[in-house]
## 1
Amino acid sequence: MTISDFSQSGDQLAVINPANLMPLPAPYDKLDKPIKALTPEQRSRMDASLDGISILGLAPPASHEEERAFIEKFLAGLAKLFTSGDNWTFLQPLVHSLDYCVKCQICSDMCPAYVASGREEIYRPTMRPEILRRIIGKYIKKSHPLLRKFRGTDIDLNWQTLARLGELAYRCTLCRRCAQVCPLGVDNALISREIRKLFSQQMGIAPKEIHEKGTVQQLKVGSSTGMTPPALTDILEFIEEEIEEKTGKKIKIPVDKKGADILLLHNAGEFIAWPENLEAFAILFDAAGIDWTLSSEIAGYDAVNYGVWYDDVQFARIALLHAQAAKNLGVKKISLGECGHAHKAMIVIADRILTRDLNIPRESSIPLMEEIVMSGKIKLDPSRNDFPVTLHDPCNMVRLMGIVEPQRRILRKIAPQFREMTPHGVENYCCGGGSGFAVTQSTNFPDWRSSISGRMKLKQTLEAFGDVPSPEIKKYVCAPCSNCKGQYRELFNYYGVWEKSGIFYGGLVELIVNAMTDLKKPFIQWEWH
């Protein structure tokens, strides 16, 4: 397969064969099944000529005129990527990454999706940038045809090329492990993200789960989950009742408390899917005497900001609402709950737009948890966590932000059987659900996610517990990120990991609360969900 094949209509470029995928340890070594094929009806209305998968659901143009308009719109958006007025977020690193890659391929073996796929050529991390680079050379920089021919960098631009490029941008989890090893600082994941941005902002094309059901819904009703402020009130009442039932403690979760020290900006998906995470925060903060609050304003109670994966405008709208909610309450700082992409969005990228009185201090909750644990304010008994525990490093917290040791110091203190994955820290592998993959349920994409993008993480997690394979021995993978937990749930369900290996997943704060000596019963209940 060569880049020129991208412009050829007809055959599917890559066919995923389960026999070629990276092997998994027993008893998972014989469980792979073919990725579900699209139905003939789906094939008739959406392009899947890249690899048989469709996340965008692009319909082929009905006429030559439609195809021409599609291409012209793409080229207009491509030109905007290289103007400072339109690309106020990533212009400089984008230009650097396109200009300085020497195609040494060091990054290829660092990409978990590429390796797990059996080194399928289309998933090579340099593939998307090279296609984009050739389009830029021919249509934006307008390099001479003889020069392109001499360099072998020509490309035909048609609807098929762009449809495949758009899909290919969503075969990268944006984990940036490739950028980690590049000696020149080239960030191929950023290029994937900028291709997504072009498709979204200029052409109105993005996965429904991320855009319509994600950012648009969050801006409209307050949360990507669809949770409205009145629904938040009901859920918090339920969580307070759960806390009392589990611990005997009557704790009132503070909402809209003016002048609190901390606004806890939490992923609202936790409130519904894993309410025990917020329960644990409430128990821990109450015991430690932390002055904190939640917000009930639109978007103020949901740290989610899917725009960081695909669209600067959507990102900015949500980041401003988050900051405004904190300003309205007059809190001293924002603390991000266990959500990796929310860390990236609010602590790192939001620096580009939050100025003056909206530039409110923003921190991760992980160091705060460490401070509480190490301060001696609460009494902890590590024997309550005397079961095998390993740690998943969310890419955005660890590789991007360098929050590496606080969570480890906590686990060494409260979990006697803590063991590291290999590799770990800034070299750890993505869960496979990054950049919106964990919430994407369209067509046959979940099969691809479990079979390929999450495959390395599954292998790594199983190997971390290789000395205790029996499902009778309950094990805990600590994943302090809502998105990663969603991916673990899907991945483990796909392969039956809970039944076969007894591996449970959960957050960090739950382990801390489970070790608190003033709780009569264990907080972690080992109920699969």
## 2
Amino acid sequence: MKIGLIFAGQGAQYTGMGKELYDYSRKAKEVMDLAGEQVKEWCFEGTKEMLRQTHITQPCVYTVTMAAYEALMEEIEKQDASLFDSIEIEGLAGFSLGEYAALTAAGTINDIRKGMDIVTKRGTWMNEAGLGEDGVQRGSMVAAFGARQEILDCVADVKEDGILQGVNFNSPVQTVVAGDKESLERFKAEAKARKIKAIPLSVGTAFHSEMMEPAATKLQNLLMECELKAPNKRVYSDVTAEDMMKGTEEMDEAGVSRFIAELMGKQAMSPVYWQEIIENMVADGVECVIEIGPGTTLCGIVKKIKHDMITLNVQDMESLQHTVKTLIENK
């Protein structure tokens, strides 16, 4: 059975995430101990409002996601060798922040501590990029439900001179729109008039919009120094929805590292083509996706794209054990 691993992004966080895996899995505990006491306190006891702050959310979600990934690998290794041999991972993808976890699992980021440092700075810079002169966040996001083109037409009609963009193309019926708060208010009013349902998201700013340009530049400069490696498995890019290494066959190691740094810098201010990523996974033969990290949001979205896809997840003990049991039954 061909499997796609998909990694959770910002918005999936909740109080207590990762605690069961920390108490059960030696590997998960190692990851979360590396993150430090402050991150563990945020994950286990942080309030909803605290965990909504970008500079806190990103290191927390990345840490719990990598802990869940290591717990899954540890649990698979406990089984007989035939299970390990039967698992065919066709590719990996991560939703926004989750792409950093995918790149860590694929060896591009060769040290979890390096990954934690990257996403911590990413969260801080994205938070700063969203602040107005008064120090208050000037952006936000809403999930709009309807045909993609109708939503983009609505965006174009009310954008005026503000920041307003379709930034997450999640499924055939869901597009996330980001922008400054005034533009978003115009969008919500016009969407209501056009009978397009629009729900505000619990995020701190306008991710993946042009508002994030200052953060994208800083991030690219940081990643240029990280000696990024070519992934050891296919990673579907949020920016292109295709194998991120497509077109790099003739590059040397330095060229590959530079290419990935530029792509991931661009990712911070570019739309996420999640629907196309899942469609490309299906075209490549993926029959089952396993969502790694807090929540089950991505599994729900996948079902709206490919209703008969087998969806599993790993975020706590129950989901870990169910996933391993299902893999054993289907080996």
## 3
Amino acid sequence: MTTERTGAYAQAVVALAEGEGALDAVGNELRTIASAVDASDDLRQRLTDIHLPVGQRLKFVESDVLQAAHPVTRSALAMIIAADRANELTAIADAVSEKAAELRNREVAEVYVAAPLDEPRQRALIEALERTTGKRLDVQVHVDPTVVGGVRAKIGDTVIDGSVARRLQDLRTRVGR
């Protein structure tokens, strides 16, 4: 959920990334980092613990893990951590993706699949979603084993759920009647 504050941080990141011609790279890297932080209780704790000095929390930005990241990504991450907003990293990354998509006259599609997709399958999925919605999409693919199989996509307020998990739930509902 984008608040006025997360939107302002996202706008600052987008401005920096656009200025460096790296909006796609920075947006993708921030989403990847946000996902990694969400998946690690230890990392999230180290980045959001206000009792740790800021210098300690910023060591993550200087770590080997982020050495290959674009300098704007590292600068944006440093800004977010130094401002004690690391707990809003996912919301800021989502807002950056949305603002980047808007600049390209596109919409963000969050797609959940059970297993990673190779490039041809991902391209086919994007084409199918664009045909179905009539929109140009910036697709973010997430691996989520709870999907079981198939695809669940969220585009704005629209959810397209062709997942095996939903079909199993429908079957359970029908059998339970």
## 4
Amino acid sequence: MPPPSKFQALLQLIRFDKPIGTTLLLWPTLWALWIAAGGVPDVDLLIIFVLGTFLMRSAGCVVNDLADRHWDGEVNRTSGRPLVTGTVTPNEARALFLGLLLAAFVLVLFTNPLTVKLSFAAVALASTYPFMKRYTHLPQLVLGAAFSWGIPMAFAAQTNELPNALWLIYLGNLAWTVAYDTKYAMVDREDDLVVGIKSTAILFGRHDRLIVALLQLGFLGLMVAAGQSFHLGAAYYLGLVIAAALCGYHQYLIRERDPDACFKAFLHNNWVGAVIFAGIALDYAI
């Protein structure tokens, strides 16, 4: 098979063919936009946040591969990444990372000063997450903080304020992110132990399924509390009931800790975000 072109390699570097990271980042941002607006948000903000989510997730993938390029070759799942095979050089990756950040920042400039200020924290979180895997067994906690930062930014952009109740959504999403990324880390646990990469899957050990279940319960409980704070109705809570059933299905999938089943459970979280968004959108529409 001929090697990919430079353009194809750059698309691979930003996981253009694997949009699950973008959707997992996008769903909670859409929850926040809809709740902040009390229904359909401003169209310009919707476009800004959808594009910004794609750009920031792409930037996160690039800096992740830059941080892990000396280890990825030792892990089966990541041994074919462009920075490992040499189809993209580190300097090209750094240039792409800065370009993506700059494009995202230009988008934020079309919002308001409060959202612009919050965007600096988003860059700091997205840039530091990959390096946490070297120093702590809780890198998923940093990822959760990063993947939840779109929530206060959405409220800031739509309302120019940060109501206290938004932090219930933020903490709920953080718990959900740690839960689903632990399932992802369970896929690579054996390889990570060999190369020295830390994760919650390694930290939790044989208690991994129990702690994931507790995180899922915490996520759902906080979302119930958020629904009460924002006076959401039956459609929203129906969405949460379906999300709870999906979380139960994920527990079934990971029961044997089979890597393929754990990865399937991770991917399936896209539906959790989708049904909650559907519940919120329907609740405001009826």
